[in-house]
Amino acid sequence: MPKLLIFPHSHFCEKARWALDYKGISYDPVAVMPGLHLKTIRKIAPGTSVPVLVYEDGLVIQGSSEIIDQIDSIYPNRQLSPVTVEGRQACTDIETEMDEKLGVNIRRILYSTLLDYPAFIRQCFTHSMPVYKKLAYGMIASKLNKRIYDVYVISPAKVTEAKKAFDVAMDQMAKRIEQSPYLVGEQFSRADLSVAAMLSLLTQPAEHPFPWGDIPDAKAQAFCDHYREHPVSLWVNKMYQQYR
Ligand SMILES: N[C@@H](CCC(=O)N[C@@H](CS)C(=O)NCC(=O)O)C(=O)O
User: Fold this and answer.
1) 137, 194 in Cβ contact below 8 A?
2) Which end of the chain, N or C, is less packed with Cβ atoms under 10 Å?
3) How distant is the alpha carbon of residue 187 from its chain centre?
4) Which residue ranges have their beta carbon within 6 Å of ligand 1?
5) What pLDDT digit, counting tens, does each position of 132-188 carry?
6) Centre of ligand 1 from the C-alpha of residue 116, in Å
7) Are 154 and 104 in contact (CB under 8 A)?
8) 85-243: what fold?
9) Domain boundary assignment for the chain
């Protein structure tokens, strides 16, 4: 059975996991800890990011979109990629654009306040790990959280920019789903799955496998609440109910 190396709370990992689950592919999800993941991932893949799918014969696929490409190419059931060239290109365009405008920006916005809540971050970074790893996290937590801030949040000005870009992208998505419940073609595709996974941090749907619990920060909560009734949030929840 292939292993899927993940950060369990990550929306990019959720995208890969949802695709595997949707297609009914058996895999073993293996949680790696941010920071400590570098050593593990560098040994097997060109970049350092998760998700990474590792097959028993040694084949390694890194990246959520690349994983969907690969599993669609070898497991024909429940195709997530459209059959037409135009459909595939439309999915690639949406995924590339929204991974950045929604996925990267929401990560920046939420980390900008949630990093101040050690118990919440510990739960995200060590979920499903053995006790010795949870203890190891305690030893690197403050250095790691600073690094996460530097890489993903960067500065308050970047957070302000991210909020604006996120809002524009939400409205852009709202216009698209006014026409049809599916972003590309007449059926559920990787474009729908990707956008919904990127926004799973916003709506925290019940079908998402991570046990979020309460958001401990009022600003982060207010950000999520602001979009609670947004048509795109309602659409995300519907995609989760119907396809996750
Ligand atoms: N384009 C990549 C992005 C994945 C990504 O940003 N992963 C983050 C977690 S959300 C990560 O692994 N960060 C640690 C690193 O890059 O070393 C994908 O779609 O898989």
Assistant:
1) no
2) N
3) 22
4) 7, 10, 12, 48-51, 63-65, 99
5) 999 999 999 999 999 999 999 999 999 999 999 999 999 999 999 998 999 999 999
6) 21
7) no
8) Glutathione S-transferase Yfyf (Class Pi); Chain A, domain 2 (1.20.1050)
9) 3-74, 85-243
